[in-house]
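This entry is listed as follows:

___
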Amino acid sequence: MIAESQLTTWSTLGPTTQFTDTYNRIRDNLLDKGAPYPLADTEVFLQGSYKNTSNVYGDSDVDIVLCHKGAFYKDLTRLSPADLAAYNAATGGSVTYGYDAFKRDATAYVSRLYNNVQVKKKVLYVPGGNSGRRDADILVAARFRRYHEFKSWTNQRFDEGICFFPNGGAMVENFPEQHSANCTSKHQNTNSRFKPIVRIFKNMRNTMIQKKLLAEGIAPSYFIEGMLYNVPNDKFVDTYQSAWINCFNHIVTADRDKLATANWMHWLVRDGSPTSWPVANFNTFTAALKKYWES
């Protein structure tokens, strides 16, 4: 069992000053009047550990979303036949400046702003500079709507998120605002215990990676937060040791197929889904946690 003092250290919020400065500087540049995309249809916001104040000392990258809001992609599969017909009848004209043009212009602009920008599968990686700026991942995204009802443009119901296309492939949808809001509510409903417990699990992951007990990429922070979001509120009580055991035991005895992501929009553990945790990785992580806790 890991000592309570170590768990207390791991529960502590990581540094935020340098991260805040990095975000503000990059955001100002992305929204500068010299940007090639229409600023009226552009927004910049945070997602990830810093946004959710679950960051630990091992976190490095600042996750920034550069989002085009002049048009939106949609999922209409949940609409009734009548609502789908109403939506199709109400659809407006074609989009003159869409995601592909936005991503092209954004990629070129960011590459001019910063040195050694790497165009990765999902993000633009901006390495930190000598001025103290942290590394940053910029996700170029578009607005997305998951429709539930549509009678008219003034009478509709949908969940709004973002979407992107890794390397020009299939669309990936995500709901960072819901994720952040749900994590905040969970934190409040557990007497401010949820985020410290998340940090403990994240620090355990980082330590296991350093000790070569777990491969990198097996347990992203997004999925760790989702995993713990499924734990009932009354498990986050007593000492950190007790809370850790409560949370871990609930996760490994729960029906894995019924676990959801923290945004409550996707299943947490599924194979073949870009928004879910592969079964093998989930099993590997939980097994490594058990072994390390007992070592």
Notes: The radius of gyration is 21 Å. The chain has nine helices and seven strands. The longest strand covers residues 136-152. Strands lie at 42-46, 62-75, 118-119, 124-126, 136-152, 155-164, 172-174.
